[in-house]
Each structure stands twice: as C-alpha cells, then as structure tokens.
Amino acid sequence: MATKHRRSSTSSAVRARLMTATAVAAALTGGLVVATAAPAVAGDSVHHHEADFNGDGYGDTAFAAGDATVAGYKEAGSIVALYGSSTGISGSKRTTITQNSPGVPGGAEKGDHFGWTSAYGDFNHDGYDDLAVGASYEKLGTDTDAGLVTVLWGSAKGLTGGTVIEDPTPSGHDRWGKSLAAGDFDGDGKDDLAVGASGATIYVYKGGITTSGTAGGRYTVKPKIVSGDDTGPLNLSAGDVNGDKRTDLVVNGFETGTEYGWNTNYYVPGTASGLSVSGAKQLKRGVITGIGDVNGDGYADIVTGQDWDPEKPGSDYPSVPESVTGGQVHITYGSASGPTTTTNITQNSGNVPGGSERGDWFGGEVSVGDINGDGYQDLVAGASGENLGSPSVVDTGAVTVLYGSASGIDTASGAQFFAQSTPGVPGADEAYDGFGGEVKLTDLNGDGTSDLVVAAPGENEGNGALTYLPSNGTKITTTGARAISTTAAGVDTAGHPLFGANAAD
Ligand SMILES: [Ca+2]
Ligand SMILES: [Ca+2]
Ligand SMILES: [Ca+2]
Ligand SMILES: [Ca+2]
Questions:
Q1: Which of 70, 136, 361, 492 is paired with 113 by a 20 to 30 Å CA distance?
Q2: Cα separation of 410 and 55, whole Å?
Q3: How confident is the model over 125-145, as a mean pLDDT?
Q4: Which has the closest alpha carbon to 489: 93, 99, 109, 161?
C-alpha cells in the first residue's frame, strides 16, 4: 500500500516536469493553473518516417494545447496539426482540432484534456499518417477520468474526422490514453498503436485499424511498473533498438517492489508476435525518451532525459549536488541484443554550453533527428528551467543541440545553444516562458534534414508558443525562423492553454 510519502516521491519527477508546463505559468498568474495534465511525450523516435498527415511529401507535426478552453469549457483541450512546406511550418497551414470538430467523436467538456498525448502512424494503411489522440481525463457516464482515445484520420486535406479506440476494460483502470506510442511492433508492415492507462498493462492494437474502430488484433504487455493515475506508463517511445526491423518500445514508469517506487524504465522488444516482456530489459532512470541511431551503427539508441530525479533512492532533493539536480541525458546504445552500455551528458560535460544548476531541467525534454544529414542522429535537449541574463530571468528556458558521431553524441564540439534572447530567435527571454518545455526534431521543409521546433508552454502567461528553427543542411539556423502563437494556431487564449507542451511522437 502506498504511503503518502511514497506517493510524493514517485510523483516527484513528474511534478518537476509538469512545472515547466503548468506551475511556471501558475507562478506568473497567481497559482490558477492546476497541474493535472499528463506528462509530456518524448521527442521523435524515428520509428518509421516523418509524420505526413496530408500525403504531400512534406513532413508534418502536431502540438497539444491540452489545457485549452473550448466553447467555454475550461481545459477541454485541443491539438494543432501543422503541415510542412518548402518554408517549414507556420500558422497558415494547419488544422486545429477539438472534440467539437466535425466528425470527431465526443464533445468538448471541462477538464477532458484532449490532445495532451498523441502518437502518429498510418493505422489504416492508406498512405496517410493518422494521429491517435488521448483525452485521458474524459468522463464517460459515471466513470470520472475514464479517458478516451481517438484516431484522427489523415487525408489529402490533412487530419479530418475520427474514430474511438475502445477501452476493452474500462472498469479495470482510469486514464485510458494517458500515454501512447505507434510503431510496427510485429514487423508486418502495418503501424500498431500502444495505449497506456493508469494500470501497468499496455494495450496494443495491431495495424489495419479501420474507420469503424476494428483493429487487426489486440494483445497486452505488462512491464514491471507501478499502477496508478500518476504512475502507470508515463511515456511510451518507439524505435528499433535491436535492428530486427520490428519496432521496440521503451516504457517510462515507476519501479514495483520498492518502498519509494522510484522512477524506472524498461525496454520491451518487438517480435514476430508483437511486443514481448520476456525480453524486457531495465534501463537507466528518466521520464522522457527519444530513440535514434546517434552513432550510426544501424541500431537505434535510447536517449532518456532525467530532469532531476536523484539516482540513488534515499538521497533526495535538495541534498544531492547541483550537477545531478540540473538534469542529465542518458544514452543507452542499441545492439543486436538490444540495449547495451549507457553514457550520460549534463551541462557540465565537455563543451556542452552552460553549467548544471539546480532546477535547470536539462533533459526535461529530448528529441533525436539528423540535422546535418551525415547519418548520425543528433540530439536536442530542453532545459526549460534555465535562468538567463543579468539580472537573471527565472525559468525562461533554453535548448541545447548536440551532434551525433561514430563515437556517439559529441560533447566536445559543434554544440549549439538557443534561447529567445539568441539573435534571430523570435521573442525575448521572459520569466517562466519555459522555452524548451517541448522539443521536436523532424524534417518540415522537405530537404531531408531535421528541423527543430521548440515550445515555450509558459509564454504569455501560459498561452504557450512554438518557435520553428530550420536546419540549413549543416546545423540549426535562425534564418527562416518563426514563432507560432496561440492566435496563429487558432487556440483560444482563455485560461492557460499551454500550447506546445507536448508534440506528437
Ligand atoms: Ca505533409
Ligand atoms: Ca491513414
Ligand atoms: Ca546506435
Ligand atoms: Ca547528424
């Protein structure tokens, strides 16, 4: 039985991360924001390809406004699909979807938090990527916080209409859709959908999901993590770590069988019959994961951000040193037998810009993609709690770009550092912007290299905003950079929508 102490310990990392998206906004706005939202989803996992919802060959992306007011209902939530073009993404080519949108099941209600979680894949195998979206606080009948998962369908016109993915055991858990991941876990050529809820069990819907909601099959996997609304699978990430052409899953959760229920992560390999816990391996701590081949050996590597949760049970904030509480990123290398050795990076490593300071939340968000097209996946790590300037601007946030190489992520040279005060980046450093509160590397202008989108969920008192920073084929550049505000994205600015706090994986 969980004690109060345990609960607060198990949730500490989650809460710390939520700070970037919610409580920082609260600090600015007098504490009106309630931290009820699901944790952010990991960055791009290169599990298949760029998202292309409208099939025009340009990569697309989607960002949540999970606390957006819809038709007067607070925190009903929305999600914004942004379609790529030769000049990347902007507010002029997008679809903003709520549960009140035509063809989308359900209706916007207070506190549904539609859009907080999402995962893309071509679930109906028609050539257009689709987007599975969670509304994990949806109330169904008398079932409070039952949760709802909807697949929004890709088409030549972009995302349109949707289908509910039925919860097979609604009485067995709450928060259906609190975590989502897509990939071809059984290697049959069709994208499957993994759904997490408040329990430890993960439900996998096999590809070939139809517009009437029928899947090609369904099974469950249950890694050794704690069940609970604030625990269960926090984040799910997909990628082929063992190089067998079947997508593997990384589960961020909390340990079973320990008094304090410390954060833990598992690698669960895909097999011909789907995900299999018999081959599961425990990984380093951290609450957010991106998967990509940073050393170019053909095996995707697991990049997990651990924003401050101390390594050693028994040690606790603030007694652990700043070098730990500033946050770190673990890189666990893939191999034919799955995950192998792990290295870690902090802001104190090599020539990584900045220094590790308590509350930086370095690694609070991570994304992996090939910015310079050299075949080595590169890394972006958010540090949404970074203070900058003199006098110091609290929690304005920053992101660090680090490049892959044959020997892994290069901390000696090539690093880039961006904040809103960086020349050419739109906006300015303001307290609690939380710039870096979500990061996404994916190709949005069709040149074959990954561009960067950085969210500042705290921008303008919790409205949130995105910043598009393209790759010029060699590095991330401010040439062609643009900001996308809530207004440009069609998100209601009532309350604190926290636009950008989660990107689709
Ligand atoms: Ca597209
Ligand atoms: Ca499709
Ligand atoms: Ca590798
Ligand atoms: Ca690269």
A1: 361
A2: 35
A3: 95
A4: 93
Q: Using alpha carbons, select from 219, 114, 237, 244 the residue that is nearest to residue 182.
A: 237
The CA R_g of the chain, rounded to the nearest whole Å, is 20
Q: What's the CA-to-centroid distance between 195 and ligand 3, angstroms?
A: 26
In the chain, pLDDT over 70 holds for what percent of residues? 88
- pLDDT per position as a tens digit, 323-348: 778 999 999 999 999 999 999 999 99
Taking a C-beta distance cutoff of 8 angstroms, is the pair 497, 491 a contact?
yes
Report the chain's terminal Cα–Cα distance, integer Å.
34
Are 32 and 26 in contact by the 8 Å Cβ rule? The answer is yes
**Distance of CA 3 from the midpoint of ligand 3 (Å):** 40
User: Which residues on neighbouring strands pair with residue 291, listed in sequence order?
Assistant: 302
Q: Is the peptide bond before 39 cis (omega within 30 degrees of 0)?
A: no
Question: In this predicted model, which residue has the larger pLDDT, 229 or 210?
Answer: 210
- pLDDT for the residue numbered 317: 61
What are 408-454's pLDDT values in tens digits? 999 999 999 999 999 999 999 999 999 999 999 999 999 999 999 99
Element (H, E) at 9: helix 4-10
User: How remote is the CA of residue 169 from the centroid of ligand 3, in Å?
Assistant: 38
Which residue, 175, 170, 150, 27, is CA-closest to 78? 150
Alpha carbon of 483 to ligand 1 centroid (Å): 19
**What is the C-alpha to C-alpha distance for residues 358 and 322, in angstroms, rounded to an integer?**
5
The confidence band for 263, taking pLDDT boundaries of 50, 70 and 90, is confident
Q: How many whole angstroms separate alpha carbon 249 and alpha carbon 43? A: 14
Nearest ligand to the C-alpha atom of residue 409: 4
* Beta-carbon contacts of residue 458 (< 8 Å; ≥ 6 apart): 20, 21, 24, 25, 28, 395, 397, 432, 433, 434, 437, 464, 498
The encoded tokens of residue 194 equal: 């993994």
Query: What residues form DSSP beta bridges with 123?
Result: none
The two most distant CA atoms of the chain are separated, in Å, by 58
Q: Which ligand is nearest to the CA of 443?
A: 1
One-character DSSP codes across 288-341: EEEEE-TT-SSS-EEEEEE-S--SSTT--TTTS-HHHHT-EEEEE---TTS---
